């Protein structure tokens, strides 16, 4: 089975699941919007009502990208554990399609679903706080950098889940670290050498109308790509180790 066929099947599965359980979609939008309103209101209160529009825009961008990345980064580990519980993991492992490709297709579909959720919520928050976030075509490339970094973290956690199925505490810890990266910016070009942090630096610049050079875009892309390559190699290595120790499908 080629990847496009697999992707089509995963899209169909997600569509059927979303139609059957639509409450999850609406609840995700409302929950993200309410939390963000509370975060901004709390930050404004602590700053004496002097929270700048630029800082507010950074909070909004950071929070929604964090929400998107958290969903991507924890997907592989959660799905491996869930498939092991349901007994479907052995069927995936014995199929002609690799586990790596199955997880990749699921994450691509998850990105499309999360984009819809995040897009609706972002439009509402943008209207509610009367933000002035400027859209620039280069934002799509920056967004792609964040997605690649999310995929990298996802395969890293998925590799660990192949050996150790009890991952909830560790995944929560990683999500907290991601929250710090997204909402506590490094306002210097040093961030370009750090995955995700450099992308956020460029995104805030573009949203504020500050021009970004091509060299900065390349520098910010390299850490995410390198991290993805390393995590993919680590996933394949841990998968071989798990099969050798016969613990892939064990809980």
UniProtKB/TrEMBL annotation:
This is ABC-2 type transporter domain-containing protein. Signal peptide: none annotated. Keywords: Membrane, Transmembrane, Transmembrane helix. The chain crosses the membrane at residues 25-46, 58-76, 88-105, 110-129, 135-163, 170-194, 214-235. The keyword Transmembrane helix applies. The keyword Membrane applies. It comes from the Bacteria.
